[in-house]
Each structure stands twice: as structure tokens, then as C-alpha cells.
Amino acid sequence: MHNPLRPALPLRLVDAPPAPSSTTPQAIIRVEDLSIVFDVPRGQVIAVDRVSLAVMPGEFVSLVGPSGCGKSTLLNAMAGLEQPFEGLVTVAGESMLGPRPDVGMVFQQPHLFPWKSVRRNIAHGPRALGKSKAEALRIADDLIEMIGLTKFANAYPHTLSGGMQQRVAIARALANQPRVLLMDEPFGALDAQTRAVMQDNLLELRGRINATIVFVTHDIDEAILLSDRVLIMSAGPGRILRDLSVGLPRPRSSAILTDPAYLALKRDCLDLIRSEGRKAFEQMETVA
After folding, report:
1. Closest Cα to residue 36, out of 51, 21, 23, 26?
2. If we measure between CA atoms, which residue out of 196, 208, 194 comes closest to residue 58?
3. What angle do CA 9, 13, 19 make, to 5 degrees?
4. pTM of the entire predicted model
5. For the chain, domain boundaries
6. In CATH, which superfamily holds the domain spanning 29-102+178-287?
7. pLDDT (tens digit, 9 = 90+) per residue, 21-67?
């Protein structure tokens, strides 16, 4: 039912696929007609506008679009950190009313506990869920080996590089064996060389974990390299403009950056994002 308090919006036609029906089989993440509205001094701002999408188990889906288009807000709704103004978000058939242990989250900054070692940072989640200390540390040790930081198991966060800290943050998010891993620009604060290494690490890690991943990024190369699908969002209020299937074979490496199929897909993405970026800039000028 339409909410009578919903701010009126101008009609804008977008090139988007039909919204998935409620009978779409096997989707682990389902977003149905989602709108998120924030209160501001002048009234209300629509951050996400009537978004519908479905993500299947094991998929890697990236969200890209101009700054302020609602990518992170949409991801936060999937994590249960933002509640809908209208619509519904479900993971594994259950409404996301708040954070859950089967939905892991990685942010742009690692947010590690500075007083805990790498090993105990990763063991924190399993301990919070009631696992014994021995079992939690066993899980941590397995993940530390997986991310290649065995020599740093007892190190503290301030002694690690930015890339190493982010690897620990990813391992900590995986410690509760989540069905879904949500990643909000996790490599955005890293230098280009470290970012490339982290992308390779994530590609390798993805082949060893059983999790569905939704990934927010501004980097088109990163989105195509990592993803099965790339969802391009409009300038605010955020809507899904295009759902692009990557279709490049796995396993992947940076060698695909010169593949003709990759270059064609990148060109399509950039054309859309540049158009939306201009709209976002025009909107900011209008507000100013």
C-alpha cells in the first residue's frame, strides 16, 4: 500500500529490468519495492527509491553508481542497519529487522579492536555466539591461515599495514560462517598497489568460502573483475538503472583487463555512470 506520507517524486523513466516477483526461486537476498527516507532540516530526502532486486546463493554482486546515490544505504538495509520507509528486505526468507550473525559486514575502515591480537579479534564473533574459547580460537587459526597472516596471529592491529588490517576484518566477518557477506568499499582507503593485491586475495578467498557477496565500490574495474553481476544505480534518489551480467570465465585475474568482452562491458558501465554523475552534479548545483 502506498504510504501517504511519502514525499512526492517527479516521474522518471529508467532503463531497468522488471522487478523480480515474490515467486523468484531460491533468492537468498530479496529486496522488494524498497524506499529509505532520511529526515533533514529542510524536510526529507529519499536515499533509496522503490528498489527491487534478488541475489542468488553464491553470487557476487557489485553495486556501483555516483557518490550519494544510495549504494551504502541499500547495503546497510541488507545488513539490518537501516529500516525501510516502504518495502521489504529479506535474507534467507527472514526480514532484516537488525544485524544477524549469518550476515557478515566489512566496512571501508577495518574497525578492529586495538587491545586484541589478530587471533582474538577474529575469535570475538564465535565467542559472542557462545562457542568455547578453544573452538573460537580454532576457527580464528583456520581463517588466519586462509588470509595468509599466520606469522602475525599474535600481532596487534597498530603493527599491521592497512591491507593486512583489512584482511583481518574480512576474516572476522567470516568467523561466524555467514551465508551473506556485505562489503562497503572495503578497499577504498588503500593505495592502488595494495588494492590490487586485495582484489586478488578476495578472488582466491571467494573460491574457498560458501558465501553470497554484495560489494559496494566506485571502481568499475574492481566491480567487473570480482563480480557475477554489476548493478548500476542512478543519481539520487537511488534506483537500479541496469543489471549487467559479467559473464567472464572464472577463475579470473587482472589479465581480463585487456579482454575485448571486458572492455565492452566497462564501456557500457562508464557511459551510464558518467551520465548519472552529471545528473548528480546538476542536483547539487540546484540545491546550492
Report:
1. 51
2. 208
3. 95
4. 0.86
5. 29-102+178-287
6. P-loop containing nucleotide triphosphate hydrolases (3.40.50.300)
7. 544 458 999 999 999 999 888 888 899 999 999 999 999 999 998 88
